Amino acid sequence: MFIKFLKKLLLVAVIFSVSGCGGSGSNASDNSYMPEPSLPFEAGIRSVLEPVASGFTGVEYPIQLYLPKNRITGKKYPVIYVLDAEWHLKRVADSLDRLELEAIIIGIENFVDAQYKHREDYSQWPLAQDYFDFIVNELAPKLEPNYPIDTSKRAILGHSYTGLFAGLAMIMDDPQAPFFTRHVSFDGSFWAHTEITPQLISDRGVLDERLKSKAILIAARGKVSNGRYVDWFQAMLEYEQFKGLEMIKLEYDVDHIPVVEHAMDDAMKALLIDQ
């Protein structure tokens, strides 16, 4: 009996000794519990994709792409659809690199015709619906499955006429399951759309009082600018009192064209930080 008692004491002592040193604990040897090493930020990868033709608008659009460099396996990233990509994708991508923010950019260049008439027409109602359908029903299904995109964090960004389109996209989208939940409009040309916009917003309010969006409205206040029309568009949305709509107003004492470069970092911070 005494020998058995000694053996029990010895066994307990061995167990406590091993557990105290952590020698065989699963946490010590299982790498799945170790945090993934943090890699230093690197500038994103920029590329040109094959153009995409649209059955809705009847033209072909050149496409650009920006991807985060240090993508983590299994991680999904916000996506920004940048309109007028031949002018603005570099500005957006440079801002992300400068701020060390990670997102995917799908850049849509314009169909180039005389004085960019196609761009002007398809940024306004009713042809804006066809351009919206091209993005949602043709371009996105073709590209998005190839990249780690967080589909709950899609943004659309435009300037001037395409800034008008970015605003209209809020109204044209599906109320119950919106494709875009973030809208960035740089000094939008809402002056070109003052007759139909109030009716579109009113009709959207009747259809559904919910409008899920983080809307970032940039207003230029320089001598040549659309600032007061951006104010007007904001007032139309506020009057409707949509539920779920968050509006962020950024204002700058610069002209219409330079406001994009001037406001880009602030816009990207508002879009991607604390989202």
Explain what this protein looks like in three dimensions.
The structure is a single chain. With 275 residues, the chain is of the alpha/beta class. The protein has nine helices and eight strands. An eight-stranded mixed beta sheet has the order 1-2-4-3-5-6-7-8, sandwiched between helices. Strand 7, helix 8 and strand 8 form a beta-alpha-beta unit. The radius of gyration is 26 Å and the shape is globular.
Gist of the model:
By secondary structure, the chain is α/β, with parallel strands linked by helices.
Which key terms come to mind for this protein?
single chain; 275 residues; alpha/beta; 8 strands; 41% helix; globular; disordered N terminus
Helix content: 40-55%
In what range is the share of β-strand residues?
15-25%
Query: What's the total helix number?
Result: 9
Could you give a short account of the major beta sheet?
Answer: 8 strands, mixed
What's the helix-strand series? Answer: HHEEEHEHHEHEHEHEH
**DSSP strand tally:** 8
Uncertain segments: 1-35
Which whole number gives the mean pLDDT?
Answer: 89
Distance between the termini: 69 Å
What's the structural blueprint in terms of helices and strands?
Layout lengths: L1 H20 L4 H4 L15 E9 L6 E8 L9 E7 L1 H15 L4 E5 L8 H5 L5 H17 L5 E11 L1 H12 L9 E5 L10 H11 L2 E11 L6 H14 L2 E10 L6 H14 L3
Parallel strand pairs: 3-4, 3-5, 5-6, 6-7, 7-8
Antiparallel strand pairs: 1-2, 2-4
